[in-house]
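Input chain follows. Return structure tokens only.
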Amino acid sequence: MGVTTIPLRSSARLTCAVAVGCVLGTRVAVAFPATDASNPSIVSTTPEPTESDLRHQLQLQSGFGAGAAGATGWTFVPRISAQEMYTDNVLNSSTDRRWDMVTFLTPGIALVGDVPNAQVRLDYAPQFRVDARTPSQNDITQQLLGTGNFTILPDELFLDARAVAGATPTAPGFGALGTGITQQLNTSNGNIGTLGLSKENQTQVNSVSISPYLLHRFGDTGTAKVGYEFNQSSFSNGGSDFPLFFQTGGSSQHIMTNQGVAQFETGERFAPYRDLIVANISQSNGTGVNQDSSQNTLVNQLGYQINRDVGVFAELGYENLRFGGLPPTRIDDMVWAFGTTVTPNPDSEITISYGHKNGFNAISFNGSYAVTARTRISARYDTGLQSDLQNIQNQLDLAALDTNGNAVDAQTGAPLFIGGGGLGVQNGLFRTKAFTLSANTVLDRDQFSLSLQISEQTTVALAPSNLVASNPFAIPPPPVGQSSNAKTASLSWAHAFSEALSMVCSASYSTAQQSSTGTLNSIGANVSLQYAINETWVTNVRYAYFDRVSATPGQSIYQNLIIVGISKQF
């Protein structure tokens, strides 16, 4: 099997060498934290909740209630929750249906810090599972979501740290449970989550990064940035006793990435023009296609602000990409793009561009529109050339946390679905296309959310056969040149009946197609009631139903869940 290579023509090399041109609407799309001290994450302008507000009840559920309402200083909230679940299909089997009573014990901590030299949001809650009739399903799921921005030297040296850990379905066709790492840190998102999945059908996802960087402003001439990022990410089937750096189980994948970035962006002296040049060097090592991979880019950008609401940009550069797998992939090519950024109001921004990157042409779209202070519509369309683990790394770089502890896009404030988009966990190199659309309305006693996610992966290279998992839920990726796709739509409604009693309902539909499984259609429904005894004790009861339908024998399953629980904050 040969090497997949896209060479750069000599004329294009000369063009890259002498080009001065290019830019994006906001920043270069490289795998480095999307925000920094000079480009902070989007902050919601939704009015702060009162004690009778539904959002206050959801914050109590997440552990962020004590530090969510604009408090400064450090807030540390430990908690513990216990749940008892009845399931009529503990093994997720189409033939060997077994009922069981499952106990979940979840200690947790929520940390919120807002001081001059540190801004931190972190929620960590390892979940311990004990099955009464099926002890082989006993497990530990690590659940973590956190970001931290630290000032080492004022206005000069900074440190960005972030991490995510959670469970995701191993097999495709479970998009109706939620398309991201469906953490059980709180239930405000309305997804069924992974509580009902068997141990074999859960993959532990871990990713952590640390990024020191130097910023220096040369008056109104411009700002220079030099930074380094270290990232360690892994997939582990069947649980993990360690939250981050170690992977266990029979379907392990891992990647370690070292990345350096250097950039210079012109300042107000050159307005309405802006020029930005970015050099990025990334070296990775790990299993499968992540073995000895590298992504090196040099991009120059030029933007022009036509008026307060409209800007245009163009981009030109060069990329050198190397990936392992069969066949090995080599890309030496030019990078170009052009587009526009529109700002219809102070809380909205829409960027659309068309260009050439990763060896192919594609459209890119990223927009968030605030219809009112309480209603927002967001959409993003991205393409890439990456493994599933590199996709997790890139999504983590884009993440921020909202007041309920949920992951949001740091650039737009839209919900961020960290995960495989309903395609399960696969081991290969893929040309990816991902579209997400979300709409959210927050009222005093109601919250409505609608989301649509469409994902497509075309296999470019496969992992060596000795690295492909043997787990029956771990479906191998399609052959080179073939594609898999998933489409998922979900709707949720949260309502507060009183200051103490609230309800969350959700319904979702997903369809996935892959050469080895055919078409898999799934539906999910969930309703939960929460009663706050006081500010620290919360009880809940929940019913959930999931059904996956397939024409392939052995692929259709359904499950009913009844869950009761209680949690205590200290």
